[in-house]
Amino acid sequence: MSGTAAEDGRPADAVSGHWVERAAPRPWRPYLRLARIDRPIGWWLLLLPCWWSSALAAIKADLSFPDPWHCLLFLIGAVAMRGAGSTYNDIADRDLDAQVERTRQRPLPSGQVRPRHAALFLLAQLLVGLAVLLQFNEQAVLVGLCSLLPVAIYPFMKRVMPMPQAVLGLAFAWGALMGWAALFARLDAPALLLYAGTICWVVGYDTIYAVQDIEDDEIAGIHSSARLFGRHVRGAVGLCYALAALFVALAAWGAGAGLVGFLGVAAFAAHLGWQVLSLRERDGRGALTLFRSNRDAGLILFVGLSADALLRSLS
Questions:
Q1: pLDDT band at residue 68, thresholds of 50, 70 and 90?
Q2: How far apart are CA 129 and CA 54, in angstroms?
Q3: Which class for 277: exposed (0-12), middle (13-18), buried (19 or more C-beta within 10 A)?
Q4: Which of 3, 107, 158, 242 is the one with CA 20 to 30 A from 165?
């Protein structure tokens, strides 16, 4: 692929060699970038709490594994709603994005997509998400609809709130409630504990992500937890991750998890600890690598909880 990212209309932090850039029709590419299809880490991080919650519910209900149909619906919904959230965020942030080196080539600030076209694209993705949500029971539908509030206010929090990642945590952690609600048609203590732990996880990993933009954010006046914590960013992320592991462990205990489930929690916690030890202040490239590694951390926990459900059903 020839040319620079700017010449090709790609953002400065575009994923090199992704099929969106290699194979997608050129007119589609700005919209696929707008939905972050070229950055699957976003929908993974939205999906994994849903799968954790499904696995935790399976343990509580003495099922052999998380409901496969629910897990598939969560996958489709995560891709659609990640795209919708990113599109909405970019519509709201297009002026701020134009001031940050990493984001000024995104489709909206660069003029590749007009705001009204982005709004129509947003609506289409929301309709896909709604179609998925309506496949669940009434209580789960209600829980899912409530997630729209933190999603709606998050883009504006970085203008007024020292740590907007807290609001992002409320939104991105919502899946921790959904798997439980989908199976039991209610919310119990293990789901709420899992939600609390997932919020801490999101604040931790998004603080790592924000390390990339500290200098530009300072110039543009954008708030972030990375700016707030400054030289103490590693300790702050460590605290978030320690609380995440604690709440997840309590959720597993409340659901009746056995040894294998807690080994999964321990492996998850160990991965988070490795991230903290590897984090370097103002090392943007290293921060991005650590941020993306949270997909693996989340899969480790999901496998541990799912294996616990399977073993318990066989015993």
A1: very high
A2: 18
A3: exposed
A4: 107
Q: Which of 146, 141, 119, 121 lies closest to 131 in space, CA to CA?
A: 141
CA distance 185 to 57: 11
Q: Which amino acid is at 243?
A: L
CA 109 to chain centre: 23
Q: How far apart are the first and last CA of the chain?
A: 55
Residues 6 or more apart whose Cβ sits within 8 Å of residue 288: 13, 209, 212
Distance between CA atoms of 268 and 261, rounded to whole angstroms? 11
How far does CA 52 lie from the centroid of its chain? 13
CA distance 186 to 167: 24
Are the beta carbons of 173 and 165 closer than 8 angstroms?
no
> pLDDT tens across 98-148, in order?
676 677 788 888 889 998 999 999 999 999 999 999 999 999 999 999 999
Cβ neighbours of 103 (radius 10 Å): 21
List, for residues 4-35, the tens digit of each pLDDT value.
444 456 665 556 677 887 788 888 888 998 99
Q: pLDDT digits over 142-168, tens only?
A: 999 999 999 888 878 877 788 888 888
